[in-house]
Structure to design on (831 residues):
């Protein structure tokens, strides 16, 4: 059965179709004993809303709706207790659909061919009655048509011949419903009209609705494109469409500032048409899928984790169909840009077209051969005219400079032309094409490099117009067999769409994109491990971006011993999965700097009281196991599920002196993780940057927050967490508790009551004046984006508290700003 998204339709299945997909309703006209093997199990375990039958069936969960069989081969649907029937169950299912009020009914999988979809079952048991069955469906179809109900046969292999036929894609395009997704194809540039073409493909070949929106429909050089709403002309319509969208397709990832707040909240796909340096990856780094066009770019290592997708072609549209070929050979060469070649290491490499070289070849060809040559050498040509020229062309030249293929190649094939390009120059591009057409046994292009272009064209022209037209006809058939958008939607797009709809997107976008400033922060760090019952993160600490866990250790010299801190830092250095440690000392005076230096930990001091802290030691495999669980489940927060062991004074001394961790696992276990006892948590930095911490509720407060705004869990279970003895403290007196006021599962209501911070709390008191030279201003702006009013920028000539030091080439101003924040905090820390 070739139905790509059955969940997008109201479906009525028969018998054990549940092994293929779960229908809304099920019709069963045979008893349990008539189903061989395990077939009845799929009926008994069906999760359909209801199972309709005239029999008393044994069902495990679906309700049974009994009805009486009406007239055999009948078409009367007026009796509410009876349905007409024949020898085959789909006939009753069609009658039930009409009785339920359907106005368009598609019949799929009713083929009467040998075997079933689930295995070889031989000749269909009703094959001998096919003529009678066909006539019965013809009468039913006529009766339904008289009642204003359309019935279509959607199966290409079906032996039924009397019903009108549609492909599943055609039926889907004409059967939009409340289950259809509302999709927006969104682009900051025209991209040679592809955003609008993609929207038309989705609208015409899937059950979904799609509209295209772009900033402008032309490139300012006289070349324009149609089919999309220009958002500067219709801002309200654009905003309304984005607000209602279930999914946004963001071409090259670029989003206008006015639309960021809308798109940040939506599932999205970022479609990369260019090299990665020219693609905004923010939405991908936030958790949404990234797709790359299957051509040269998709072979670059930088796109290794992106999903390839074929260039969409609306083959059913007249503009993309062949026209009659003239008796004189016609050649079309209209590259999108008139560039020559770029070095393989140049970021512009894939934009090379070999234009000057190709034009010299064509000029020589025109001088000695009877050919018509159409190019854009004199200037831009409207896309509609280019398509019209290709429809009549015998030969279409794409480019032979990079080894890739572009829309020019595909448009040439669709137009029934012989297409020349440089496929094969770069390893891997041909494989990208084969992945788009896995059932093809040939490459449909004439492939050569620029050095052999003259020879290739001479050979093609020598074949004559009739042979070229015949080859072009085969190329059109190749496109019809291997480049149908309905097939591509199922194979390439749906897996990405499902990922987007079910993703756990980082909520940092809600903060980053809707604030002006700060500038967009490009890096998204891995999870952060927070130890002790209070969160130090909201002090504004920004950990490094290396993979693994960055451990934040709050420390109060007034309540803890430096020896305890040294013990904990030493153990952390031995743990796998730890990429860095930041010690945040809080109190009236900083004392832990030397200790942190000896253990390669970053030390920050904050003049602020910090209570309920007490040193703990984590199991040696804790970080590694926790990180694996975070990444595997896509969590934003993980609460430690390990029990707690409170060590006595002698045991604590032994642990400080280097005794192995395993020797203490048998000590009395006081508690496990939960609302009353959370001793370590892992939180994604992207989530923390957006929503900050919850100091009044401690680490356990993360779970209430994350359950509402993202995704959290508990774990990993394993060895206990050891808590060192401290004189004067009783067991359990540092447990934190969750005391959220009116927690709710509604994210909007939660954010109203617990709004995210406008900026991080700076690790220094008050406001500093930061002097920045012009070339350093981008770092200063990034720092102000982090800490808001705690940073005031000025020129080096003005009075200032801190001068931005000379910086090397600034590749990432946000990373430079975080390092600068650490230096400022150190300089401002009291001795």
């Amino acid at each position: 059965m070739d139905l790509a998204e059955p969940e997008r339709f109201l479906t009525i299945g028969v018998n054990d179709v549940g092994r293929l997909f779960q229908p809304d309703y099920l019709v069963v006209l045979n008893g349990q004993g008539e189903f061989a093997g395990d077939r009845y199990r799929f009926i008994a375990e069906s999760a359909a809303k209801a199972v309709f039958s005239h029999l008393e069936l044994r069902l495990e969960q679906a309700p049974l709706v009994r009805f009486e069989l009406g007239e055999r081969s009948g078409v009367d649907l007026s009796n509410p207790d009876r349905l007409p029937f024949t020898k085959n169950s789909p006939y009753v299912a069609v009658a039930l659909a009409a009785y339920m009020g359907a106005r368009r009914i598609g019949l799929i999988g009713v083929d009467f061919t040998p075997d079933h979809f689930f295995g070889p079952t031989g000749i269909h048991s009703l094959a001998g009655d096919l003529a009678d069955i066909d006539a019965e469906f013809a009468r039913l179809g006529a009766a339904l048509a008289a009642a204003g109900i359309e019935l279509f046969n959607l199966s290409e292999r079906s032996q039924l011949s009397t019903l009108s036929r549609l492909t599943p894609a055609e039926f889907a395009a004409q059967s939009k419903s409340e289950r259809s997704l509302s999709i927006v194809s969104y682009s900051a540039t025209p991209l040679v009209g592809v955003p609008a073409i993609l929207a038309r493909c989705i609208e015409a070949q899937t059950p979904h609705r799609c509209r295209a929106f772009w900033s402008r429909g032309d490139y300012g050089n006289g070349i324009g494109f149609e089919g999309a709403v220009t958002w500067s002309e219709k801002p309200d319509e654009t905003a309304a469409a984005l607000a209602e969208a279930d999914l946004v397709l963001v071409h090259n990832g670029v989003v206008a500032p006015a639309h960021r707040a809308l798109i940040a909240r939506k599932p999205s796909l970022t479609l990369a048409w260019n090299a990665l340096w020219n693609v905004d990856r923010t939405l991908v780094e936030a958790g949404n899928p990234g797709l790359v066009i299957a051509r040269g770019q998709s072979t670059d290592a930088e796109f290794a984790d992106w999903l390839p997708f074929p260039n969409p072609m609306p083959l059913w549209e007249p503009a993309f169909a062949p026209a009659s070929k003239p008796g004189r050979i016609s050649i079309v060469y209209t590259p999108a840009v008139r560039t020559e070649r770029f070095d393989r290491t140049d970021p512009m490499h894939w934009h090379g077209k070999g234009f000057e070289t190709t034009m010299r070849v064509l000029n020589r060809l025109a001088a000695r051969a009877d050919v018509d040559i159409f190019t854009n050498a004199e200037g831009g040509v409207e896309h509609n005219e280019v398509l019209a020229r290709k429809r009549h062309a015998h030969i279409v030249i794409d480019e032979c400079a990079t080894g890739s293929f572009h829309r020019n190649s595909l448009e040439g094939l669709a137009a029934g032309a012989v297409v020349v390009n440089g496929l094969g120059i770069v390893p891997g591009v041909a494989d990208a094409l084969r992945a788009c057409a896995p059932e093809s046994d040939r490459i449909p292009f004439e492939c050569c490099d620029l050095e052999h272009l003259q020879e290739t064209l001479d050979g093609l022209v020598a074949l004559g117009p009739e042979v070229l037209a015949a080859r072009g006809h085969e190329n059109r058939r190749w496109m019809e067999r291997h480049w149908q958008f309905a097939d591509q939607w199922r194979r390439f797009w749906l897996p990405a769409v499902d990922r987007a709809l079910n993703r756990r997107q980082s909520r940092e976008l809600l903060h980053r994109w809707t604030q002006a400033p700060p500038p967009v922060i490009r890096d998204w760090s891995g999870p952060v491990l927070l130890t002790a019952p209070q969160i130090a993160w909201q002090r504004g600490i920004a950990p490094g971006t290396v993979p693994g866990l960055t451990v934040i250790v709050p420390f109060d010299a007034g309540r803890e011993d430096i020896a305890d801190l040294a013990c904990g830092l030493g153990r952390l250095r031995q743990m796998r999965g730890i990429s860095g440690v930041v010690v945040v000392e809080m109190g009236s005076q900083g004392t832990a700097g030397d200790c942190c230096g000896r253990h390669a930990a970053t030390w920050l001091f904050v003049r602020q009281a910090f209570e309920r802290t007490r040193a703990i030691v984590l199991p040696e495999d804790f970080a590694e196991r926790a990180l694996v669980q975070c990444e595997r489940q896509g969590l934003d927060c993980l609460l430690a599920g390990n029990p707690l062991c409170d060590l006595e004074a002698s045991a604590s001394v032994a642990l400080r002196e280097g005794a192995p961790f395993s020797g203490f696992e048998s000590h009395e276990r006081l508690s496990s993780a939960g609302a009353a006892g959370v001793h370590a948590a892992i939180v994604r930095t992207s989530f923390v940057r957006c929503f900050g911490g919850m100091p009044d509720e401690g680490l356990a407060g993360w779970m209430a927050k994350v359950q509402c705004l993202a995704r959290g869990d508990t774990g990993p279970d394993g060895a206990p967490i050891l808590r060192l003895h401290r004189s004067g403290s009783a067991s359990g007196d540092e447990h934190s508790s969750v005391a959220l006021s009116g927690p709710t599962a509604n994210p909007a209501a939660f954010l109203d009551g617990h709004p995210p911070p406008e900026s991080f709390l700076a690790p220094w008191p008050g406001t500093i004046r930061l002097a920045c030279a012009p070339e350093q201003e981008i770092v200063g702006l990034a720092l102000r984006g982090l800490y808001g009013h705690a940073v005031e920028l000025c020129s080096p000539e003005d009075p200032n508290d801190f001068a931005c030091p000379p910086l090397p080439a600034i590749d990432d101003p946000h990373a430079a700003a975080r390092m600068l924040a650490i230096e400022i905090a150190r300089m401002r820390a009291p001795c």
Q: What stands out?
A: The longest strand covers residues 578-586. Residues 512-547, 668-676, 728-745 have pLDDT under 50 and may be disordered.
